[in-house]
Every structure is written in C-alpha cells, then in structure tokens.
Amino acid sequence: MTDTIITVEGFFEIEHAAERGTVSLAAGFEGPDRAAVLVSTGDLHHALAGQAQRLETEGAVTRWSADRVRVWSERPWNQNGVQLEPMQHTSAHLEVTFADLEALATWVETVAAESGVTVFDVTWALTEATASRVSAEARHGAVRNAVERATAYAESLGLATVRPLALADPGLLGGDGGEGAGAAAAAGGLALMAARKAPGGDTGGGIDLKPEQITVAARVHARFAAS
Q1: What CATH architecture applies to the domain 4-17+128-226?
Q2: 161 SS3 class
Q3: What are the tens digits of pLDDT across the range 136-145?
C-alpha cells in the first residue's frame, strides 16, 4: 500500500512577563536665544544622565546611553504671512534600560513632569537567557502541534501509523509558502519584545507604564508519511 503524504504547519505560542523596559526620552528647549536654550538643554541632559548613572550603580538600570545635544533653527511665519525672527531648537536623546520595572515607572513619572523632557515610549523585552529558553520551548511546542495535526488527519483517513519525513522552518519544504521562521513576536516580527503607546498612560502623554506580556511564537512546516 502506498503511503499517504501529509504536510502540515505546526504553531505554538508562549506568553512571558516582560523583564526589561527601555525608556526612550529627550531633553530639549526652544527660544530666540541660542546660548540660553543650549545651556538649559545641557543642564537638563546632564541631570538626566546623572540620574541614569546613579540608577545603574544601584542596580535598577542595566545600561543607558545619551546622544550629544543637537541644535537647529527655523524662522516661523505668523498668521499674517510675515516671517518672524529665527527660533532656536535643541534636543538630546537618552535611552535607559531598567531591570527594576517598578523603578522604571517611578522614574518616568518623575522626569515626564519636568519642563523640557519628552518621553517617547517604553519598549518591553525579555532577558537574552529567558528569550532563548522560551524560544526553544515554543519551537518544541510547534513540532508537537505538527505531529498532533498530522496524526489527526491520518486518523480521519483511517490510517494508524504516521512517520516524519521532513521538518523545516516555514517556506523551506518547497511550495509551502509562509513567512518568517523560528521564534517570532505575535505581531509578525522576529524580535522578542513589544512596545505600545496606550491612550491614557500613566505619564499623561500616552505612555503605558504597565509591563507587557511578551508573546513568543514559533511555526514549523512538517511532512509525514501515513499508512
């Protein structure tokens, strides 16, 4: 009796609480006096960097980075179509990654209230060790799911034995289609992290400070011989 070939896709996903949060923010001012806005921005930037360094020393922060102060000017127009005197703008970005997520929320709420500070977003992530472990679990789950689906198809055909012939990331069995491979975020990317701006966030600026559940998903394509 000729074997019946069954090709299936296995899928599995795991949710895990975020373990790291990276805050992206900037210090900046605007005004007609270039020297004044530079000094104000420099002082604020230095203060924020000092806070990040202190939090790193205390163990709440794992790493942080700060860009140089950028300055540019523009000449705005008034409602009568008259071009006004140049307005000076400054900005200096910082990124701070927290291991202590309660400290993250406290710090963001504090700095967001300061004049000249703009908090852009918070990106949630897993540690590398956890991401590797959960990714492996998701791949194992996807393979088990593929076996279960193939077995169910075989039983529907009155077949009792299922033997694996091939297992691959999506698209690698030839003609199976599919996008991506391995562990993936539920949104469709390959990064094990999530970032979201939620209405009514704790900072009043639309940033959600509640740590997210990170969804790690895996897909596999598998081919079986059933008899």
Answers
A1: 2-Layer Sandwich (3.30)
A2: coil
A3: 999 999 999 9
